[in-house]
């Protein structure tokens, strides 16, 4: 049964309203990831405040803490990604609460929530914590603008937004080279504002659509280079800059969208890149038996990939 808790006044604010600097500083302090180990009243209050913003089950919280107790070996990201093999693919799991709450769901995943779940686990493990509240703090950091949840509009809805904000926060770095990653990408996101009826909360709040449209326009334009589809079939000699567990974002030519799918890079025994992903085709999390290039060729709007790495400790 979902743990039902009352929302604090922070989350009850309008999605378009932002806290002032003083309030933001206080919130950042209460959710600090560098909290002292001593279980004093201030730390306990901060954890309670954070958990009051979450939507989760007892099963989820126990699973997170069990995963954080595991020995992850040399590759924490790939280790955690493989713990979710076989978990059902389910879309729309974040569209649960209005006002927005931090949804924690390890039982049903799509490509984005798999990446965020694994990323938050790896960050928390690197911080030496086994606490569910610290995992939730890291999940919030990854999912929302500037790491703070302030309504639906604070969520990083497009991958372009997600990658840039998490690079700005020092959590992510792009992995590239000048020889093979040569195809220029020009972002022209407008899918959400053009199709608000396909989004539960935009349909319920048409007054938010103009804000989404302004955000889309602000972050559109030239945005670097990607590895074209033909080059994704090269071997380790050429693509050795890509490591197991790196985040793979598939660039799409579909109108109004920047990226169509996310997953993790895995070098196969065939010497080629494969994708570990939450698959709508297989209806679960899988390591694709097909190479990454074969996967892209079967999806004509998938024109190439960009690669990123979780870098913070």
What features would you highlight for this structure?
two-stranded parallel sheet; 18% strand; globular; 313 residues; disordered N terminus; 35% helix; alpha+beta; eight-stranded antiparallel sheet
Structure explained in plain terms:
The protein is α+β, with helices and mostly antiparallel strands. It has 13 helices and ten strands. A hairpin with a 5-residue loop joins strand 7 (259-267) and strand 8 (273-279). Strands 3, 4, 5, 6, 7, 8, 9 and 10 form an eight-stranded antiparallel beta sheet that branches. A two-stranded parallel sheet has the order 1-2. It is globular. The two termini are 34 Å apart. It has helices at 9-12, 21-30, 41-51, 58-68, 76-82, 111-126, 132-143, 159-168, 191-194, 200-204, 209-218, 236-239, 292-297; strands spanning 54-55, 102-103, 172-175, 183-187, 221-228, 247-252, 259-267, 273-279, 284-287, 302-310. The longest helix has 16 residues, at 111-126. 35% of the residues lie in helices and 18% in strands.
The counted number of beta strands is: 10
User: Total number of helical segments?
Assistant: 13
Give Rg in angstroms: 19 Å
- The best one-word shape is globular
Secondary structure class reads alpha+beta
Q: What is the ordering of alpha helices and beta strands?
A: HHHEHHEHHHEEHHHEHEEEEHE
Distance between the termini: 34 Å
Determine the fraction of residues in helical runs and give it as a percent range: 25-40%
Main sheet properties? 8 strands, antiparallel
**Beta-strand level of the residues, as a percent range?**
15-25%
- What do the pLDDT scores average to? 88
Low-confidence stretches: 1-39
């Amino acid at each position: 049964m979902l743990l039902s808790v009352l929302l604090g006044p922070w989350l009850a604010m309008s999605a378009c309203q932002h806290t002032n600097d003083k309030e933001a500083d206080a919130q950042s302090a209460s959710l600090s990831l560098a909290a002292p180990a001593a279980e004093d009243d201030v730390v306990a209050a901060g954890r309670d405040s954070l958990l009051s913003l979450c939507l989760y089950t007892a099963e989820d919280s126990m699973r997170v803490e069990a995963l954080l107790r595991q020995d992850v070996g040399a590759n924490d990201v790939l280790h955690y990604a493989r713990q979710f093999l076989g978990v059902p693919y389910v879309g729309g799991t974040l569209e649960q609460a209005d006002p927005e709450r931090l949804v924690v769901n390890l039982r049903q995943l799509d490509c984005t929530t798999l990446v965020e779940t694994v990323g938050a686990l790896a960050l928390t493990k690197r911080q030496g914590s086994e606490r569910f509240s610290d995992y939730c703090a890291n999940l919030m950091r990854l999912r929302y603008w500037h790491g703070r949840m302030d309504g639906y509009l604070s969520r990083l809805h497009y991958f372009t937004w997600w990658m840039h904000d998490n690079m700005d926060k020092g959590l992510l770095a792009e992995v590239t080279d000048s020889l093979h990653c040569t195809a220029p990408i020009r972002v022209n996101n407008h899918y959400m504002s053009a199709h608000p009826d396909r989004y539960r909360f935009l349909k319920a709040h048409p007054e938010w659509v103009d804000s989404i449209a302004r955000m889309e326009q602000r972050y559109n334009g030239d945005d670097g280079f990607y590895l074209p589809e033909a080059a994704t079939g090269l071997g380790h000699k050429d693509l050795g800059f890509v490591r197991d567990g790196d985040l793979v974002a598939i660039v799409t030519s579909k109108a109004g969208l920047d990226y169509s799918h996310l997953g993790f890079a895995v070098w196969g025994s065939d010497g080629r890149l494969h994708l570990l992903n939450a698959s709508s085709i297989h209806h679960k999390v899988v390591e694709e038996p097909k190479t990454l290039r074969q996967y892209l060729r079967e999806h004509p709007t998938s024109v190439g990939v960009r690669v990123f790495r979780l870098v913070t400790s």
